[in-house]
Amino acid sequence: MLLADARRQVVETCRRAVEDRLVIGTAGNVSVRVGDLVAVTPSGLDYAELTPELVGVHELDGAAVEAPLKPTSELPMHLAVYADTDARAVVHTHSIAAAALSVLVDEVPPVHYYLALLGGRVLVAPYRPFGSPELAVVLIEALGDRSACLLGNHGAVTTGDDLAQAYQRAGFLEWVCEVAIKVVGSGVAPRLLTEQQMAEATRNFVGYGQSAGDGLQLGVVDGGGGLLPPL
Q1: Which of 74, 141, 178, 200 is catalytic?
Q2: Residue 74 annotated to the active site
């Protein structure tokens, strides 16, 4: 089977996203780039039924190479990321806090230094119909040289050097969005981090933990099933 390992990773990530409540039903989609090929989730299939054989393999222009099912309607968005960035994986979620915050702000407010793990800023792309070329365009504009953005009235997108990193970032993004939602709704003027403080956090994360880069591991789940940030 072509790209067997990548297709297995896609399945495992989709099922984990359901367990971590980052997606519901058939919402969201995941892809991995290997060379000039992309393994990506099919359209409208319950993740409990997804198997590696049903994950499609496509060329960077979208042409099917080994794809028994129709690809996700968001394939243009994934391909746009691979065309414009060095990312090797994309995770698109419809997580609750990210979707809610995307309706309220044009940028995730700097309520916590974990934004440094996503490039320092997370912008919100204006609403465009799902699956449309226009959505891919505004996604790339909002993403810039960072690894995350929100899609207005829609959800979130994170990228990474591999699928584990992209998924990890999706968890951090949802956690920060949940904090921001509570801050925005508090009615109290927030003490937001300054650009200088965010820059300092970014520098401090380099080499933090057991490896360089993000240097942190997700996977801790609270009693309600939600993702918790590491200590």
Answers
A1: 74
A2: yes
* Nearest-angstrom CA–CA distance, 138 and 151: 9
Beta strand 29-34 pairing with 89-93:
antiparallel
Cα–Cα distance, 22 to 227 (Å, whole number): 9
User: What class does CATH assign to 4-205?
Assistant: alpha beta
Distance CA 128, CA 182 (A): 26
> Model confidence over 117-127: pLDDT tens digits?
999 999 999 99
Per domain, the residue ranges of the chain are 4-205
Digit-coded pLDDT (tens) for 179-212? 999 999 999 999 999 999 999 998 888 766 554 3
Q: Residue 115: enclosing H or E segment and its boundaries? A: none
What is the C-alpha separation between 36 and 227, in angstroms, rounded? 33
pTM attached to this predicted model:
0.89
